[in-house]
Each structure stands twice: as C-alpha cells, then as structure tokens.
Structure to design on (230 residues):
C-alpha cells in the first residue's frame, strides 16, 4: 500500500525567508510524486510533479521540490516566501509499480507567511 | 490542463435529504474521480467513474450512499443520499489529464453542510 506523511501540521515563516514543507512517502514500486496547494474556499491547484529524471523539479509560483530516494522524501521549497504563499499544501503519491491511478494524499501542511 | 466546474459551490441541507453535485469538464476525459475532504482532513477518494461503466468505489464508500452517474466524457454527478451531519465535507471532482498519465486536475469543490 502507498502512503504519504507530512509531519508538520503548520509551518510559519517570515516573508522573504526560505521555506520548506516536508513530505515522506512509502510505495512498493517507483513513486510518482506531486505537490498541490489549496487556497481558502478553493479547489486544489497543481504545483509540480516528479516522475523521473532530475531530482530537483521546478514548478509554479517559484516553488521547487527535491526527490530523495534514499530518504524517501519529496520536500517542497521556495527560496523567498511571499505572504500570498499562505495556504494549505498537500503532498501526494502514486505507485507506478502498482498499476493504479489512485493518488494518496498527505494530511496537509498549513503554511503561514508572516509579513 | 483541464478546466473543471462544479455545481453547487456550496449548500446547506437538512438531515435525511439528498444532494446531487454536478461536475463539468471543458474537454473529454476518460477518468474522473470524486474525493471527499472532511473538515481539517486530507482528501479521501470516494470512487472512480469511467464513462460507459459502473463507478468503482473505495473501501468505506457504497453506491447506495454515493450514487454516481457518468453519462458522457465531460460530465459526472455525485449524489450524497440520506445525509447526516457526518457528511458535512468538501466534495471535489477530479480528472486525469488526457495525453498524460501523470497529472490530476481538481474542481473548486462543493462545500456541503448538513444540519
């Protein structure tokens, strides 16, 4: 079975500082990994994905994420946080080896960027 | 990417009644998904709906409670039947992008409150 853990319920960071939102995963095969963002009263918006290739992937709004196979992690990062980045962030995984299209989501991390 | 709309955006319903949520996509898609996001929780897959076949329900969800229709490649409905306060959630429609096996796109969600 596939699973995702986001160990932090909330992350607070000052505007202009770098931010990291942590994610670890568990799959039996090769992982497809995703980050989504949810703004208040909105649906999920796709940020970025890792399928294969370069371990550092770049996505929307200046976000990037680093895939680390040995640590089974896929942490979301941004060099300089904006107040508008304040939202709920979800990490998700799909197990390529399982032949399933099902996405499994983490419980989400609330990011608050303080002016 | 696919543009997804849902109706209604929100509703307040009485216990014991039913609500049908509509999902419309701006392009033809094979796979559509319905998710539930309970307050403060992550997303849980309810069912996968492919056009021309019966929906496939995840463990803990049954057709009598959450009947789904998928009459064509751009539209689906989810009905929440015989509602109770425990059904108060955000219900999200999602599609797998055609031409890519990797990405899922989400609608804005329907916020349901059951009194």
């Amino acid at each position: 079975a596939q699973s995702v853990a986001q160990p932090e319920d909330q992350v607070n960071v000052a505007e202009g500082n770098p931010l990291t939102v942590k994610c670890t995963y568990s799959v039996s095969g090769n992982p497809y990994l995703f980050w989504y963002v949810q703004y208040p009263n909105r649906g999920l918006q796709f940020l970025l994905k890792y399928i294969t290739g370069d371990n550092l992937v770049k996505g929307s709004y200046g976000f990037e994420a680093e895939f680390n196979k040995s640590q089974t992690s896929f942490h979301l990062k941004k060099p300089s946080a904006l107040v508008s980045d304040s939202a709920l962030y979800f990490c998700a995984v799909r197990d390529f080896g399982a032949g399933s299209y099902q996405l499994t989501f983490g419980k989400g991390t609330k990011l608050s960027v303080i002016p | 990417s696919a543009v997804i709309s849902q109706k209604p955006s929100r509703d307040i319903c009485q216990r014991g009644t039913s609500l049908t949520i509509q999902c419309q996509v701006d392009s033809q898609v094979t796979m559509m998904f319905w998710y539930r996001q309970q307050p403060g929780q992550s997303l849980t897959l309810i069912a996968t709906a492919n056009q021309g076949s019966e929906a496939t329900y995840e463990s803990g969800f049954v057709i009598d409670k959450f009947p789904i229709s998928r009459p064509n490649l751009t539209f689906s409905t989810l009905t929440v039947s015989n509602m109770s306060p425990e059904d108060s959630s955000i219900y999200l429609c999602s599609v797998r992008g055609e031409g890519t096996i990797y990405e899922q796109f989400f609608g804005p969600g329907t916020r349901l409150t059951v009194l």
